[in-house]
Each structure stands twice: as structure tokens, then as C-alpha cells.
Design a protein that fits this description.
The chain is of the alpha/beta class and 365 residues long. It has one domain: Rossmann fold (3-Layer(aba) Sandwich), CATH 3.40.50.970. It is 42% helix and 10% strand. It has a 6-stranded parallel β-sheet with strand order 2-1-3-4-8-7, sandwiched between helices. Strand 3, helix 6 and strand 4 form a beta-alpha-beta unit. The longest helix is centred in the first third of the chain and has 26 residues. The chain is globular, with a radius of gyration of 21 Å. The protein starts with 31 loop residues before the first helix and ends with a helix.
């Protein structure tokens, strides 16, 4: 796991009970034990992603694989504002979101391996993780295809009379897609009447596959695209966990109270390649990646914790414990059985027996 260490300026400690102008409690920046817990979550995500990359290259992961390395602070910070009954929907870089919401490393890794013990019985793979009991409404492989679904979920939640919200994650590569503009327009329209509590979280990791934001859109200030639809917005440093958490709790409370959509552009960077098969990375320089590694979100948090008095030995113990958790998940996935043939016909719209399928196949030959 690549993190950086060194001296860091200490931040001001907000006192207990401090609130921002909206009356939302401010994260106590010296609540060290909380930060240690977030550090553990982010380290598990990092090691999980590194292990899944290795498994992909060993031929154990089918389909495709997109890891979250470098972006851990975004989902960790925003999902800290999640409440039971809220809905979370995202694109195909979805492992971290599932893990943070409560899916176990074992069942997520087994899903990547296509095993029967996986989160969705081995049928979804890396890009289509679902865990409805934990409010994870899916990762989606079609770029931008999930955005209308998330906006519709937000309308449904308010129509049902709840105060739940939707956290809708999308990448910078999806924001020029027609589905985004159609859905954002409806969100802004329904939001006039307080009927669309949708929190748009644009994870701007600088590249849509191998195309930089500068080469993909005339308006590189992605947050401002929401102006066209009457949706208020802001930016946040997506590499700084504390900044993300402060933003997340404040804007989630606002969306929950008003029923109006809101957008946050989280400026982040995927330190890893776009996908596990993206070896050459000719679209960006090694110097650029090195520069962003200096702001690795786990490294930034690590330095803060050391400044706050956490001993490095304790952080090393957390990393060792996290490695055991991930190693166990890989063993579990390796040893789990393949899905039985009958699973092809479960959880689908039309059911057909295995024998009937074989007979039909034989007849076509």
C-alpha cells in the first residue's frame, strides 16, 4: 500500500458542540478515535483493491475490474452521512461503496471471483454489486445509465413521505452523457416542490478512461453544469477526509430537510490505472501520478493521526489487521464453490428449467 509520511501542519480543533451557519454539528477534528476508525476503513479498501487487482491478473476475476485506489476519502466521507433507508447508487467503480455500507469483504471478493457465495451469487461481478439490505442499490456498467435511476429513487422516497435521501455517485466521464442532462433536469424540476432529495456526488478523478477532463468537455468546471438545471452545488477536496466529511454531513442534512437536489464535485485522482487491464497508461505521465501520490488520502490522514498523537506502531497494527481481513476474503473466495447451473434461471424475469434449456439447445444444433 502506497502512502506518504512526513510533517503536517496541525489543524484547529473545533470545540464540542460547534456548529456551522446551517446549524449542523462540525466534525471534531481532534476526535482521534473516530479518525482512527476511518483510517482502518480506508486501509481495508486499499488492500482489498490491491488484492483484487492481483487476482484479476491471475485470471481469477472474470469480466472487468475497476479499483478505487486514490479515491477512498470520497466514499468514506460521504457515506458517513448515510442513514438507514437512504439509497446509494453508483457506477462500476463500486467496491468501496459496498464495503462501507456493510457488505463483508468475503462476499464482495467472492462476487468478483464469480462464486456462489458472492454478494449476488456470482452473477454481477465487479461492476454490478447489489446489497439492498444495506441500501446499496447497485453498481452499473453502462456509463451514465444509473443516473436516471437514482433521480427516480429520490422522487420515490419523498413521494412515500420519508426523509431519506439518495447519494448518487457519478464520474466526470458520465457528465456529458445525455442521461445525465435529462435526469438532472428532472431533479431540478421536481426539486422546486421539494420532491427530489438527490445528492449528486461527482467523483472527478481527472480522467474518463484515458481521456482527461480538459480534452472531453468545453466546461471543465463540472459543478457549474448543474446551474442549467437550477441545482445548487459546490466543490470539495476529495483527497482530504475531514473536508469531505464536513461537506457530506452539511449538504446531506440540507437535502434531507428541503427535498431539493444538491451537487458536490469531489476533486480526486485515481492513482491506479482506469481498469486492471490498463497497463500502459500512455494518456498521463509518471510525473503527474507521482505528484498526486503526494496527496494520497490515506497518507494525508496518516500524517494527521501521527500529529494528533497516534503512535505509528498502532497504525502498523491496523494495517496488519486489515491485511488479515483481506487475505481471509481472498481465501474464502478461492475456496468457495462455483454457482450451480440452476442459478442461471433464478432471479430473472422468465424461468426455465435446466433440462428444457438443454433440450432447446440440442434442437437448435
Amino acid at each position: 500500500m502506497a502512502t506518504t509520511r512526513g510533517s503536517a501542519k496541525k489543524r484547529r480543533a473545533d470545540g464540542p458542540g460547534d456548529t456551522n451557519p446551517d446549524g449542523v454539528p462540525v466534525l471534531e477534528r481532534r476526535d482521534t478515535e473516530k479518525l482512527v476508525g476511518y483510517y482502518r476503513q480506508m486501509v481495508i479498501i486499499r488492500l482489498f483493491e490491491e488484492a483484487s487487482q492481483r487476482a484479476f491478473r491471475q485470471g481469477k476475476v472474470g469480466g472487468y475490474l475497476h479499483v478505487y485506489i486514490g479515491q477512498e476519502a470520497v466514499a468514506t466521507g460521504f457515506l458517513d452521512a448515510h442513514r438507514p433507508g437512504d439509497k446509494v447508487i453508483t457506477a462500476y467503480r463500486d467496491h468501496a461503496h459496498a464495503l462501507l455500507l456493510g457488505s463483508t469483504p468475503r462476499e464482495v471478493m467472492a462476487e468478483l471471483f464469480g462464486k456462489a457465495t458472492g454478494l449476488v451469487k456470482g452473477k454481477g461481478g465487479s461492476m454490478h454489486l447489489f446489497d439492498v439490505k444495506n441500501d446499496m442499490m447497485g453498481g452499473y456498467g453502462i456509463v451514465g445509465g444509473h443516473i436516471p435511476l437514482g433521480v427516480g429513487m429520490a422522487y420515490a422516497l419523498r413521494y412515500q413521505g420519508t426523509d431519506n435521501i439518495v447519494q448518487l455517485y457519478l464520474g466526470d466521464g458520465a457528465i456529458n452523457n445525455g442521461a445525465f442532462h435529462e435526469a438532472a433536469n428532472l431533479a431540478g424540476l421536481w426539486g422546486r416542490d421539494g420532491m427530489n432529495p438527490c445528492l449528486f456526488i461527482v467523483e472527478n478523478n481527472q480522467y474518463g478512461m484515458g481521456t482527461s477532463v480538459e480534452r472531453a468537455t468545453a466546461m471543465t468546471d463540472l459543478a457549474r453544469k448543474f446551474d442549467s438545471y437550477g441545482i445548487e452545488h459546490e466543490k470539495v477536496d476529495g483527497m482530504d477526509l475531514e473536508a469531505v466529511m464536513e461537506c457530506a454531513h452539511r449538504v446531506a442534512a440540507r437535502v434531507r430537510e428541503t427535498g431539493k437536489p444538491y451537487a458536490v464535485e469531489a476533486i480526486t485522482y485515481r492513482i491506479a490505472p482506469h481498469g486492471a487491464a490498463d497497463f500502459l497508461e500512455r494518456y498521463r505521465t509518471k510525473e503527474e501520478v507521482r505528484k498526486w501520490r503526494e496527496r494520497d488520502p490515506i497518507g494525508l490522514l496518516e500524517r494527521k493521526l501521527i500529529d494528533y498523537g497516534v503512535e505509528e506502531e498502532r497504525l502498523e497494527a491496523i494495517r496488519a489487521e486489515a491485511k488479515e481481513v483481506v487475505d481471509d476474503a481472498v481465501r474464502f473466495a478461492d475456496e468457495s464453490p462455483e454457482p450451480p447451473l440452476e442459478e442461471l434461471y433464478t432471479d430473472v424475469y422468465a424461468e426455465e428449467s435446466v433440462d428444457a434449456s438443454r433440450e432447446a439447445s440440442a434442437a437448435r444444433r
